[in-house]
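ERR on first pass: missing label on line 2. Operator R.T. fixed the label and resubmitted. Corrected input:
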Amino acid sequence: MVILIQASYFLAAVLFILGLKQMSSPVTARRGILWSGVGMVLATLVTFLDPSLHGVSNYLLMVVAIILGGGYAWQKGRTVAMVDMPQMIALFNGMGGGAAGAIAAVELFGAINQSQAIPGAGVSLVLSSDVAIVAIVGAFIGTLSFSGSLVAWAKLDGRFRRTSLVPQQHWVNLGLLVLVIYLGVKLFDTDSTLLVLLFFLLVLLLGVFVTTPVGGADMPVAISLFNALTGLAVGLEGYVLDNAAMIIAGTVVGSAGTLLTQLMAKAMNRSVWNVLFGGFGQSGGAKEAS
Amino acid sequence: MIEGWAAIYIFLLAGFTGYEVISRVPVILHTPLMSGSNFIHGIVLVGAMVALGHATTLGQQLMGFIAVLLAAGNAVGGYVVTERMLEMFKSSKGGKG
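pass 2 clean. output:
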């Protein structure tokens, strides 16, 4: 059974890479998405056979979640107007980032539960140091991509129009980033559920704050960047879960997405730095204008 | 199974693969390719299923459920959106030829 699962994951990874290759040429693009789709269905189906999964209720929840999440996305993706496609990509990309963040949360909260039974033990002792670091970094990137993509979606969809939420937005963001990094380092050895919760909440807030100043025309570049970040987070959580298909597919998207972000920025005569921090020092003026 | 240096080599090689695979993409395919790669990281669904399948407490089940819900949205939505974009692309090309 395990060999069947590993072989299927291997095949899925091959199909993803070939699919992406074909998607980068107009002639073969449609075949590319089809091949990738076959890989995805295969990987998903064999995962049900994984002998380490347990609990009837867990299986039930799995099926319900796939039907609800997949059904909603199918309906939404089918019916949305062509011009609204970019915000759909942002929305679905955000969901992927959120999933990576939630996986990290399951692992981190699980480790903390176990560590509380052992005096003086923390996350790093239960998960081992390398896994703990990768899980925390993945949690940060995935969660940031989640809230950032949702803001990108809301802005493109015209539901959210502000360019700053607090005065001196960029300096506040910088301070928040430092605080989040500090908490992330603390997480490594913690046995406090509250600290993990605070970490996730602040990362969510950081994603919102970072994306808010990005202008509408620059948004596709920002979405592409979040896409690359989600890929990276998926790759990192793949290491935590010991899943080669996730590591390969996630990392491939991470690097392809980074290149794509640069290409898109170049096509618009912008630099990625400019897109993210272009409003630097203008947040005060924007506030006065509004 | 995948430990230390082996994982770092996989990261390295997969990173180069991703970079090489799309290095000559025409501008017109930028958005569909972003959507396509968005679909591919939908593989996070597999990890979400494993995380939920390992859950022992109610809290873990809840987070796992959210993970699978979001990941399924990523995978299915990513596919549908990419398919629709490329479909449009093909028909406009077919019209010319």
